[in-house]
Amino acid sequence: MQDINTYIRRHGIKGAIVDAYNMSSSNTPSITIGMAVLLRLRIFEQDADETSPAGAFSTIASWNFAIDRDYNRTTEVLLRANTDISVSEDGIIQIPLPDTNTQALVTALGTAESATFIAELAGYENGNTAPALVLQFPIIVYNRVDPEPGAETTSVTPATLTLAQITALLGAQLEFQYSADGENWHSTQTTADTYFRARNAAVQGADYSLPVALPKGADGHTVDPDLVAPIAERPASPEGDFCFIASDEGKVYWYKSGAWSAGAPLTTVAGPQGLQGIQGQQGPQGDAATIEIGTVTSVPYGTRPQVTNSGTKTEAILNFQLPQGPQGLQGPQGPQGLQGLTGPAGDGLKIDATGTLANRHEYDNASAKFRYMATDFYVDTVTTAAGTYQRDYASDTQSAYAWTNHAASPETIYTSEQLPELGSTAGGTVNGSNVTSTIVNVGEKYQLYYQ
């Protein structure tokens, strides 16, 4: 469920999106089609510092909420909800939208990623059919890529593999199994095995190949050396065929046809442990010796440790050079420290004088740090159902004020007022057609000047 919290400044029936401090905000509430939504509204009156309490809505007995693209009463609204709308103890209007997947809303969005619509909340008192409260504000609805999930998509198995794919398969490690009868398989080869099979170990769940017979050569002959000795004692030209084992190399050589072969490594099998020899005679008593620890020095990580004797054989003084260990891992963050003392209270934002922007020159000779608040606000953006437009002074005409949407190729609309109000109209030529749009949001700002 989408849980959306929105602050709205109410001016008549029109609502402007603001933040928690009643300052203009571009954070227009947005919902996603097909998702359950809980829309929470906090209402500011025009110049209020706090949102309206629950008592401000105590006479409202029922509510109706609707979303539409225009004010054409002959067409059905895109979405309507009038059940379980309530006001919390702290004055939050809670609007549940359990089903936003209406056919009208789906049709209105079409293939667009999102669109801005008009949201309207109406409150009715007991015994009255006319609403006692109407509030209109902009809302964005986002489309879905896959609103009705079906079966998983299926991948297509290629009929051929590329050279890079074949190279990757051949480069993977093979996993082997062995069998004596071609039916029962195991991973460790034994002398009784006559078959093997293999598969790509890097591919999870890959099939094994068909069984392949293990090649087997004829039984070899037992080596019966003519001489076992160090390589230096190998005869240069023995008579007839000769087998020599170099005991210091662990290799076997054959002399055939008047030449020695290259040495072949000889794998030996350890024989049984021999009998323990007799104990030798006790040697003479040695000189008494002492050992003293000299210096212990820390050296950088990676340096080999070293121990040197700066004394004598019988009076050793051992000096150690020990490398530092590698840097350890960072430990967990320690607990938060105690809160510091409260500092002195500041003087806040002091306003020395207020007035219109035209009267600011009267304070040009004021002292340093003089603050002047221009109470006549200005408007820098307007929003219609087609998007948000920035003030474009360069495109003003003698009778109209220009506003341009630079993200739309660009598009320019015009208003008759420099400070247009919510619900007023703006017109212009968009994609070759004359368009008239209703302003659903204005970006109002005040100006603060420092001397």
What is the strand tally?
A: 29
* Percent in strands: 35-45%
General form: elongated
| Rg, Cα atoms, Å | 46 Å
What structural category characterises the helix and strand content? Answer: mainly beta
Major beta sheet summary: 6 strands, mixed
Number of helices: 2
**Helix percentage:** under 10%
Distance between the termini: 51 Å
Average pLDDT figure: 85
Uncertain segments are: none
Structure description:
- The structure is a single chain.
- The chain is mainly β and 451 residues long.
- The chain has two helices and 29 strands.
- It has helices at residues 103-109, 163-171, and strands spanning 2-11, 14-18, 30-32, 37-44, 60-68, 79-81, 86-87, 93-97, 114-125, 133-142, 174-179, 195-200, 212-213, 227-229, 242-246, 251-256, 259-260, 264-265, 290-299, 306-309, 315-323, 353-355, 371-384, 387-391, 401-405, 411-415, 425-430, 433-438, 441-450.
- Strands 22, 23, 24, 25, 26 and 29 form a six-stranded mixed beta sheet that branches. A five-stranded mixed beta sheet has the order 2-1-4-8-7, with no helix packed on it.
- A hairpin with a 5-residue loop joins strand 20 and strand 21 (315-323).
- The chain is elongated, with a radius of gyration of 46 Å.
- The chain starts with a strand and ends with a strand.
